[in-house]
UniProtKB/TrEMBL annotation, chain A:
Name of the protein this chain belongs to: Sugar ABC transporter permease
Protein family per UniProt: Belongs to the binding-protein-dependent transport system permease family.
PROSITE patterns assigned: ABC_TM1 (PS50928)
SUPFAM superfamilies the UniProt entry points to: MetI-like
Organism domain of life: Bacteria
Membrane-traversing stretches: 9-31, 72-93, 105-125, 155-180, 201-226, 261-282
Organism whose genome encodes this protein: Oceanobacillus iheyensis (strain DSM 14371 / CIP 107618 / JCM 11309 / KCTC 3954 / HTE831)
Automatic annotation (TrEMBL), chain B:
Annotated ABC transmembrane type-1 domain residues: 84-275
Membrane association type: Multi-pass membrane protein
Similarity comment: Belongs to the binding-protein-dependent transport system permease family.
Compartments, record wording: Cell membrane
Keyword Transmembrane recorded: yes
Name recorded for this polypeptide: Sugar ABC transporter permease
Keyword terms: Cell membrane, Membrane, Transmembrane, Transmembrane helix, Transport
TM region positions: 21-46, 87-109, 121-143, 155-175, 196-219, 254-275
Keyword Ribonucleoprotein attributed: no
Chief localisation class: membrane
InterPro entries to which the protein is assigned, alphabetical: MetI-like, MetI-like_sf
GO cellular component terms listed in the entry, alphabetical order: plasma membrane
GO annotation (BP), single: transmembrane transport
Lineage of the species this protein comes from: Bacteria, Bacillati, Bacillota, Bacilli, Bacillales
Length: 291, 290
């Protein structure tokens, strides 16, 4: 649109509310966390500038690396669990069968539910005394396999990861389903005419044609996994003995329980760059522009 | 001759059998997928009507009689009335504010050429890359300094700020697609800039607006981290925060826990079932383009 002086004023008025609230409550905090990460500070008394000491300590902190490791488990389980399962069921549903709408609705349902509700529900399922899982194992005669799922350092991460995968399969399922609907039917029919089997068509035509969506799913999956916090906070709070700790949770405890604001901020800064770098690498590897 | 006919027939019945078999396999697998997705929730809902004793002996069947006591207990102990009220207020207000100021900003970013347009847009979209947990500490300190910890409007600020990027992203790309001469004819008719926004652009953007309203609503309704850090007054807690605290305090009262969780699920599940189509459309268009 042509600009007059009046429209310049209008642009400023129109952009200002969004700009202000976004700059003050999203951009300013992330910049502040850089600043705090260079300080030694308990949140109450005066700050002392200590340069990069927080980061030096961070890199020597085995508990921090433990949380990074667990976070990577979440990333791996999400990418290797959610994406293939979602793709499998989307391909299964992408044909002329009855009940497509039903399966689609049910498939996406967990994504809509609050993480806290999901965590609490699954905590009840994993409950060592009368949780559904142990009860089920006892009923089918496998009682010896019953475990204290969330209280055992060997099992806790696996239990948590199952819930993580369960929660978000539906998201990628829907993305793939939408992508599959955009694959032109003529192409598939032509392949059929040429005598290609269903396997061939799926792997040589359908999947390559929705490759972009698969990449988007992988990127969403990775960046989502790095944000894991609520689920583990509610289910195990990082325990037992830090065996289910992740970066965001570690940051939270260091800051608000141990009152090390500077050190906690250093973890925040690490999370920020870790996410950016990982997304950058993945987009470069897969040749997709994020924005 | 005869043998050729039989093999042909055999092949046909074989093909039919194969087709039927693959159908059975497909439905079985999809059925399993559906059960795995909903059974945990149904299990909880059914058991929320059982007494403590019945729960321990009969976990997988229907209750002998539906006991509503768990619900009364949960409502009272978890203070669900207050939690619902707070959640609805925060969620509705934050969604409205985000969509209104987001739509206004998107209008100028999508329909006007000015010097800082591209920079401004990139600036907003950058927010999609900010991990919110990296801002919890400074957000807490900022809110403390502003005297905004533990108030009714505390959560509105971070919720609006962090959902503007996706809102602007979806709305801008939608508004950009309108033909260029829309405004010209409106200007001929004497409409001003804000008039064009309100009477032409906004109504035309309805599908995208629906999408961002739904997305914002679901995010805000379920948000936990900011509520955890910025609110500790029980009278101001939102549903996810209140439920987490409630479950932490009443670990052994399974019936009441399950009743509380079931009640908290009702609004969002109804919301979802009503708007399922739009949610799915919105999720896909937003996510696939991302």
């Amino acid at each position: 649109m042509q600009l007059t002086r009046k429209s310049k004023a209008a642009i400023i008025i129109g952009l200002l509310p969004a700009f202000l609230i976004y700059a003050v409550f999203a951009i300013y905090p992330i910049l502040q966390s850089f600043y705090y990460s260079l300080m030694e500070w308990d949140g109450f008394t005066d700050m002392t500038f200590i340069g990069l000491d927080n980061f030096r300590n961070l890199f020597e902190d085995p508990l921090f690396w433990n949380s990074v490791k667990n976070n990577l488990y979440v990333v791996i389980a999400s990418v290797l669990g959610q994406v293939p399962i979602a793709l499998f069921f989307a391909l299964l549903l992408n044909r002329k069968i009855k009940g497509v709408k039903f399966f689609r609705t049910v498939g996406f349902l967990p994504v809509v539910l609050s993480t806290v509700v999901i965590s609490l529900t699954w905590s009840l399922i994993y409950n060592s005394q009368n949780g559904m899982l142990n009860e089920f194992l006892r009923n089918i005669g496998l009682g010896f396999m019953a475990q204290n799922w969330l209280g055992d350092t060997k099992w806790v991460m696996i239990a948590v990861l199952v819930t993580v995968v369960w929660q978000f399969v539906g998201l990628y399922f829907i993305i793939f389903l939408a992508a599959l609907q955009n694959v032109p039917t003529e192409v598939l029919e032509a392949a059929k005419m040429d005598g290609a089997s269903e396997w061939m068509t799926t792997f040589k035509i359908t999947i390559p044609m929705i490759w972009d969506s698969i990449i988007v799913a992988v990127i969403l999956c990775i960046s989502g996994s790095l944000k894991t916090f609520d689920l583990i906070y509610v289910m195990t709070n990082g325990g037992p003995a830090h065996s289910s700790d992740v970066m965001a949770l570690y940051m939270f405890h260091e800051t608000f329980n141990n009152l090390q604001y500077g050190y906690g901020s250093a973890v925040s800064v690490f999370i920020f760059f870790f996410s950016l770098i990982l997304i950058f690498i993945v987009t470069k590897l897969l040749g997709k522009k994020m924005i | 001759m005869e043998s050729i006919v039989t093999t042909k027939n055999n092949r046909r019945t074989n093909g039919k059998l194969k087709k039927r078999l693959s159908r059975i396999i497909i439905y079985t697998l999809l059925g399993l997928f559906a059960i795995v997705n909903v059974y945990p929730i149904i299990w909880m809902a059914i058991n929320s009507f059982k007494s403590e004793q019945e729960f321990t002996v009969n976990q997988f069947g229907f209750p002998n009689e539906f006991i509503l006591e768990n619900y009364a207990n949960a409502w009272e102990i978890a203070n669900l009335g207050v939690l619902f009220k707070n959640s609805i207020f925060v969620c509705v207000t934050a969604t409205l504010v985000t969509v209104i100021i987001g739509a206004l900003a998107s209008y100028f970013l999508a329909r006007f050429k000015f010097r800082f347009n591209k920079i401004m847009y990139t600036f907003f979209i950058f927010g999609l890359l900010i991990p919110i947990h990296a801002t919890l500490v400074p957000m807490f300190i900022l809110m403390k300094n502003l005297g905004l910890l533990n108030t009714e409007i505390t959560l509105l600020f971070p919720y609006v700020a962090f959902h503007l990027p996706i809102t602007i992203f979806i709305l801008t790309s939608f508004m950009k697609a309108f033909p260029k001469d829309i405004e010209e004819s409106a200007i001929m008719d004497g409409a001003g800039i804000f008039r064009i926004f309100w009477s032409i652009i906004l109504p035309m953007s309805r599908p995208a607006i629906a999408t961002v309203v739904i997305l914002n609503f679901i995010y805000n309704w379920n948000e936990f981290s900011f509520a955890l850090v910025l609110i500790n007054d029980p009278a101001l807690q939102t549903l996810p925060l209140g439920l987490a605290n409630f479950a932490g305090q009443f670990t052994t009262n399974y019936g009441a826990q399950m009743a509380g969780l079931t009640m908290s699920l009702v609004p969002i599940v109804i919301f979802y079932l009503f708007l399922e189509k739009e949610i799915v459309n919105g999720m896909t268009s937003g996510a696939v383009k991302g």
